[in-house]
Amino acid sequence: MIKTQQQAPMSTQLELTPLIDIVFIVVVFLLLTANARLLSLPVDIPTTDQAAPASANHHSLTLAIQPNSPMFAINQQGYESWAAFEQALSPLLANADQQVTIAADRNADVEPLLKLLALLNQQQITNTQILMEQQP
Question: Which of 12, 16, 107, 119 is most solvent-facing, going by the fewest CB within 10 Å?
Answer without folding.
Answer: 12
